[in-house]
Amino acid sequence: MTKKELKVAVIGGGSSYTPELVEGFIRHYHELPIKELYLVDIEAGSGKLAIVGALAKRMIAKAGLPIDVHLTLDRREALRGADFVSTQLRVGLLDARALDERIPAAYGLIGQETTGAGGFAKALRTIPVILDICRDIRELSPDAFLLNFTNPAGIVTEAVLKYGGVKTIGLCNLPIGTRMQIAGLFEVEVSRVDVEIVGINHLNWTTRVAVDGTDVTQALLSKAAGAGGLTMKNIPDFGWDSEFLHSLGALPCSYHRYYYLTEQMLEHQNEQLKEGTTRADVVKRVEAELFELYKDPQLSVKPPQLEQRGGAYYSEVAVSLMTSIHNDRKDIQTVNIRNNGAIPCLPDDACVEMNAVIDASGARPVQPRTPIGPQIRGLLQVVKAYEELTVEAAVHGDYGMALQALTIHPLVGSADKAKQVLDDILKEHAGYLPQFK
Amino acid sequence: MTKKELKVAVIGGGSSYTPELVEGFIRHYHELPIKELYLVDIEAGSGKLAIVGALAKRMIAKAGLPIDVHLTLDRREALRGADFVSTQLRVGLLDARALDERIPAAYGLIGQETTGAGGFAKALRTIPVILDICRDIRELSPDAFLLNFTNPAGIVTEAVLKYGGVKTIGLCNLPIGTRMQIAGLFEVEVSRVDVEIVGINHLNWTTRVAVDGTDVTQALLSKAAGAGGLTMKNIPDFGWDSEFLHSLGALPCSYHRYYYLTEQMLEHQNEQLKEGTTRADVVKRVEAELFELYKDPQLSVKPPQLEQRGGAYYSEVAVSLMTSIHNDRKDIQTVNIRNNGAIPCLPDDACVEMNAVIDASGARPVQPRTPIGPQIRGLLQVVKAYEELTVEAAVHGDYGMALQALTIHPLVGSADKAKQVLDDILKEHAGYLPQFK
Amino acid sequence: MTKKELKVAVIGGGSSYTPELVEGFIRHYHELPIKELYLVDIEAGSGKLAIVGALAKRMIAKAGLPIDVHLTLDRREALRGADFVSTQLRVGLLDARALDERIPAAYGLIGQETTGAGGFAKALRTIPVILDICRDIRELSPDAFLLNFTNPAGIVTEAVLKYGGVKTIGLCNLPIGTRMQIAGLFEVEVSRVDVEIVGINHLNWTTRVAVDGTDVTQALLSKAAGAGGLTMKNIPDFGWDSEFLHSLGALPCSYHRYYYLTEQMLEHQNEQLKEGTTRADVVKRVEAELFELYKDPQLSVKPPQLEQRGGAYYSEVAVSLMTSIHNDRKDIQTVNIRNNGAIPCLPDDACVEMNAVIDASGARPVQPRTPIGPQIRGLLQVVKAYEELTVEAAVHGDYGMALQALTIHPLVGSADKAKQVLDDILKEHAGYLPQFK
Amino acid sequence: MTKKELKVAVIGGGSSYTPELVEGFIRHYHELPIKELYLVDIEAGSGKLAIVGALAKRMIAKAGLPIDVHLTLDRREALRGADFVSTQLRVGLLDARALDERIPAAYGLIGQETTGAGGFAKALRTIPVILDICRDIRELSPDAFLLNFTNPAGIVTEAVLKYGGVKTIGLCNLPIGTRMQIAGLFEVEVSRVDVEIVGINHLNWTTRVAVDGTDVTQALLSKAAGAGGLTMKNIPDFGWDSEFLHSLGALPCSYHRYYYLTEQMLEHQNEQLKEGTTRADVVKRVEAELFELYKDPQLSVKPPQLEQRGGAYYSEVAVSLMTSIHNDRKDIQTVNIRNNGAIPCLPDDACVEMNAVIDASGARPVQPRTPIGPQIRGLLQVVKAYEELTVEAAVHGDYGMALQALTIHPLVGSADKAKQVLDDILKEHAGYLPQFK
């Protein structure tokens, strides 16, 4: 592929994460020669866009690179002819997230941004916006890759795969985080570690680990039992039981704590709520602090405080993928893509999270080494069925599908609670759910 | 098929249900010419066997039929050359059932004989006994059909299909009960009603109903919403929500209340337990009363009180199946059989409950009319995965598989509780669980 | 189902087969109460329609039944409100059939009406006409069942299933003929024989035979080896080799001779052609004689000579199917229907020929007892792939798909011959192939 | 992976190809540090082994590398502790090959070493020998990779996958040859070309080609139509028709000429045979000349004449695979491996030829981009079914499966010819077919 000059559009460019992404673009400029970087946001985000955009320009100027940064509220201008489109938007901002956490909690359920009833609500709000972006991409940059980071990334990516009509790959920093944590457990460089990950976004299992090509999966399970640090910033660090891990035969991801350690997680949640805090509140405070830092005209690098924000490796993931596509690299990354039989116990048109070869044409699944046993399969299938129903509910504004989605979700677990929570969600978020009118 | 004289062996022949079965044999003698009827039981059941066996003999004498009734503790004698073997045994008797109800309840979970952690415990106790019976059948009557009624009938039948090496069909009175209740709702003869049932034992969905060949599924869902009586004797009669039923697009079975209406069911259970009663206690009392009646040497018919016992239509189901096999009838019945792709979202070697053509060679699935949507699929798959794990745990005495089974069961729902409940089960039922030694 | 009065439309009503069908309607009137029988034909067939229609009226009058027979060239009038539509049309009449036999023969290939390049040509001519009929049915009698007898019946039915948008079942007299021949070999009443047939139209295998419910498949294979009479009127009666049959493990159908005994069949064909006769010529003469008979105003029954025509049991098959649908009978018949996984080695949307339960809603596959081994699978799959390509070619007028279809057909066998034969077909039948313009 | 010193065993080390392989080992020594190279042969090959082994030693000495070359007739010594085992044996030597070419030709069929009845005969002779080698490997070097080049490589590899119990990958120089020819057509370096190959050995299709990451498949089909050189040394260079290629949508492999251009190939074969030559005769002469050259004690490089032999790139393929495994390289190569659903229209346990990621654990399929259409699927499935039957026939000495295998092979095409050819094969090769005794 001739090294042409690239145009990248970042939807939700006013996000506090943007400096992370810009730092990645700078570091990888030699292999990802971006010429035009569009940061686009909505009217409500114009203030933040101005602040973070100015920082981005200072960072690039300091690096001495010929990347033109454009700040705009005109999404169509940003998308026209783009090579890559990245989304990091949040419909309803952090106030909506606080509701996603509080509404389920009021019924004794897990309230979380991406999982359970909270993630469900976020999906309902986000999918119509993303599909609207897809309409523009189809018209203005039909060859662009849409890299979707917007949570719940698996559900949103499935909606795009089924209804968006654009080339898309869903991304998450969890797989790379897992790989880094495993490298830490084995005290080796991350490049020496290979992980085989299967499942769906925020519900994946690491079914095999190799260090220098040698299978060390059993050793990993022994090391991981009870070990701390095997989680994301935003998830309490409850340890795994050794017998449980070995009979599971795989390392669950951080979010599995909501499913496997529900009581502990609920207890933790309720303590937090008693103190009056949701994760949304924490993030709000962190973001306010970050934007104060960003305003400093002397600042021309990513401030270290950003790493506390929870999105570690986010830039790494996005830039690695763009780089491998642009350079037709044929390396293996863990991404969210159409299944097509790669995980035989899930529908062909499901979005799955797994290892794939990345080249100029996108991502293609690599066949996992081992069949998925029933201990993984059962939970995987029921959550995927929930996701399918959620996509249908979000796209068509279908109350019945929404009710069925929540009913079968393991973190809701009954039709009665599902209905109560659903009615609250539709009422509280009504402004962002026009499809249910 | 020449109308040869048949030999039938009833394992657990001392059960209070036996008069029901004998009544069926009498009524259908003209098409199911049984010559030898063996009622076999274990030493501990010899007293009940004598009582119920004497009643059986009086019933047959009164009907004037040439059926020879044999009462024996020698299972091999009963099995030798049998055409049909029926199981209605209960490992650990009603005391074990009481534990199955109480252990889960102590952790705030549903305690039930066939579903959830209670059904799991029963499966662990029952499967080794059934597989031992299969060893005898393979040797003594390899052409016999094993008709398995023993609960959890789906799991036990799956164990036989995978490890028993005999011809088997699993049976339950729930499908015929559903059909009768639907006939009642439409106020028509049951023979005019066809039901399409898909799923697994005690977790099936009626996805289509026809009266006189005309599809009345939507009308059924409307009638069923809120209607009483749509359940078995032993399950509280909470009504279904109309919106829920219509978006589900199918009629759930009675046991679905444990999954869809968990809170109400738990509340009901806890009230019962507060009053000091489990279902096992109720059954114990009923059985004691029945055996008092059975002792009456004047009694030579099935006493009407037996119908209160909960096994309505049990005889109907068993005798219909034997009759259709014996007469190569090619009619359609709802049975538990190997899937082989009939329900594509479940493994080929899973035991499924669905409509099948019954002929001299056994049962073959009839392809359901409609694909199974995600609202049914998700729950079905996770419970089936639990069943697969339970079969492995029961056959191999595998603690890890047992732990994983309970962890993913929707009525347990976390690894922590699973471990606590499992450890209690293994301790309390230790005498019946030699495979875990 | 209330016994309402039925309307039946027979497209191609002027066919010489019609008296056969009418005789069936008369014999089964008590269970298939037809009120209106429309015989419809095209202008070119109006003479024959008048003759055969008059005979039909005399037959019904003699039987004293209140069936109104209508003769018409107005297809829409015939279809309006019909309960059953039956097709027995021949696009291009027997002259086109003669070409179907001669064109392939000119290249040293089998020339046959339903198989190979001849059947391919007939499919190209027929599918557009049938889909045009479907358009009328969708508008005028959307609840009607289209019973398709038109050859190649499997390919035409697949086209209707994929593109027709009407309820359809494909029919052939071959399966019932097979069952009758097997009954003959065992010297028992046909009602005592069950056959399990799997495959596709004119390429099915009888994989299991039971007499009175007892499996006699191996005995059948022994009896069938070398036996005469195991074929249709129009296929030479070359016997099967015993070793071949036993290693195949199933009884091939008559048309398999074209595939398994190609040299003998080609030799036979070439001898016939040397004498100047094609099967089309024979049929032409037979038909002429039949119509002479039909003209006789004294004739009011089906003349016995019709049975020489080759369509034995045709009426039996059609009337049995209508009767089972009308009476919601739930019996098992061998029909051509959508696969949906019933034969797992073929695509879900393929038309397959297999046993199905027939009720008021149509036909649903019964799961075959045994998996299909590679000796059957390979030939079945390649011919089905040919059929898929033929449907696409016929519907879209796609030259490339037509070329690929013939190339992979085992009776053509190379791209070079495929192209030559295809070009001849397109040229010779141009008047009937508007889709290739 | 620590760069340990490797042991490689070459079964059939006396082959004329060995210098090719040795040259590859020399060229890649820096990344494939072989310490022990065992060339093993049978008694009958000891003369050739001495000659070619001496040359191998001179080549390594000249290169100044510390590779110890061992010449031995003791296979077990060669296998003990090996890291890689490569097979290049020919059961029955070239005389048997001559029969493989002449027997089918006598019936008017294609006679070819790897395809059709000739390849079938070779499979029957080879599989028992290879499975015997597998027994030794399981005992003496259970962690070794068996790299199988022995033709028919796909069938032999399938036999090993099903019955061998060792880690194996089947190899062929055809895929790399295809890639090189395509690079030639586009006049670019081969490293800039990616090919997506799907199918089975000697019957694969190149379904997509990219140059520098850009899809150029349509351009390839246009260039390939009529072009020369798109074949192996041993296959006549008949060109492809443009309409045919474009409707196929993929580039067939060289061996497809036997299927798609059967008449031309037969004609060519018959001309050759009239002149009294088979390919075996040509190879015999070439080999004799090569061994004359090899004897020259001055020769210490691979003589250029070897490239005329037909096995171009053979060394490249073998050494690339060993290198990627040894270095855990995770690059993509086209290999023969277990399907596991990667090509959904073939059985899971079939051996398929396709792109795979190669790492220390072996090869895992990369999901092809496009579904396989019926024009490819049909031929692929029937030939794979033939291969399955051939494996069963070869392993179990099953006459019936052998008969069915040949019957469905498109290059045999009828049961009559199949039986004649089979009986000739069993008689002529009797000494090498003990399993049919």
UniProtKB/TrEMBL annotation, chains A, B, C, D:
Domain Glycosyl hydrolase family 4 C-terminal: 198-412
Cofactor(s) required, per the database record: NAD(+)
Keyword presence, Transmembrane helix: no
Keyword Secreted tagged: no
InterPro entries in the record: GlycHydrolase_4_CS, Glyco_hydro_4, Glyco_hydro_4_C, Lactate_DH/Glyco_Ohase_4_C, NAD(P)-bd_dom_sf
GO-annotated biological processes: carbohydrate metabolic process
Residues annotated for Mn(2+) binding in this entry: C172, H202
PROSITE patterns registered for this protein in UniProt: GLYCOSYL_HYDROL_F4
A Pfam match: Glyco_hydro_4C
GO molecular function terms attached to this record: hydrolase activity, hydrolyzing O-glycosyl compounds; metal ion binding; oxidoreductase activity, acting on the CH-OH group of donors, NAD or NADP as acceptor
Site, as annotated: Increases basicity of active site Tyr: E113
Positions contributing to substrate binding: R97, N151
UniProt entry keywords in alphabetical sequence: Cobalt, Glycosidase, Hydrolase, Iron, Manganese, Metal-binding, NAD, Nickel
Cofactor note: Binds 1 NAD(+) per subunit.
Record family assignment: Belongs to the glycosyl hydrolase 4 family.
Protein name: 6-phospho-beta-glucosidase
Organism: Paenibacillus nasutitermitis
